[in-house]
Amino acid sequence: MWTQEIQCRGNESQIRMCPASEKHSCSHDDHQALQCADVMHVRLVNGNSPCAGRVEVYHRGQWGTVCVYNWDTPAAAVVCRELDCGEPVDALGFAHFGQGSGPIWMSVLTCSGTESTLKNCGSAGWGKHACTHNHDAGVICSGHKRSRLADGSNLCSGRLEILHVQTWMSVCDTVFDQQDAEVVCRELDCGAPVQVLGAAAFDKGDAQMWTREIQCGGNESHISFCSLSSLEHNCTTDNTVGLICSGYTDLKLVNGPDSCSGRVELQFLKEWGTVCDACWDMRAASVLCRQLNCGFLSGSS
């Protein structure tokens, strides 16, 4: 009987990698049971994220790739949904995420986009293809973040880095503006931009520099949907751009007699909490009433 407490974080690949703490008194009447879900039949490899990479499917005890022939947005949508990775951002081919090895399991896919798994799509048949691994298909799903903020005080502030061809790059402060910041904060679920900072405000970092001008309209959901100018700027690591997002993504009123009255709670970095009354005034209260479509402020306590 194993009696030490197993303390896994949840992201370990094997149970032996989890630390163990003090022992407990147990008998065989106290044994632990477990039921696991079915094995996942599709995965994305080499994309620096579970939601981007080369598409591989599991068949006959072996992982293999998918040929790019007929690889399209509906097929990519099936993969993104199967992996709980949102919507397809880009369906890519010709070994964009590197060449796989082993069998090429699927080719000439015919997906409607509504299938629950890629295996339910039509194809030429398992292992039937006229492809090489130069033709391996890939996908980027919306659950894959193409931007991040580094060396800040929390996940919603720091030096901006964007992912380009599997490499994280710092961004030159002269190619980035307030509209671009709106998109990055939205992509990271970090609310609205509070401040765009230049001159390596969050340290220089050691990444390569992105110097092409980013041209977002401000309403895009992901930085990858923004267009790029052909114009490049001369930048050094002294010019990396930093960004502070509000981190506040939602507000609500709870424990009141209706939806327009109650205790103010605020969502910060995906966690709900209350608001200190010393941080709250009539102007903030008026904004909240308007945001919640609750008319004008009638009282605040």
Automatic annotation (TrEMBL):
Residues 1-37, 42-142, 147-246, 251-301 form the SRCR domain. The keyword Disulfide bond applies. The keyword Cytoplasm does not apply. Keywords: Disulfide bond, Repeat, Signal. GO terms for cellular component: membrane. InterPro entries: SRCR, SRCR-like_dom_sf. Signal peptide: none annotated. Pfam families: SRCR (PF00530). PANTHER family: SCAVENGER RECEPTOR DOMAIN-CONTAINING (PTHR19331), SOLUBLE SCAVENGER RECEPTOR CYSTEINE-RICH DOMAIN-CONTAINING PROTEIN SSC5D (PTHR19331:SF487). This is Scavenger receptor cysteine-rich type 1 protein M130-like. The lineage of its organism: Eukaryota, Metazoa, Chordata, Craniata, Vertebrata. The gene is LOC113068558.
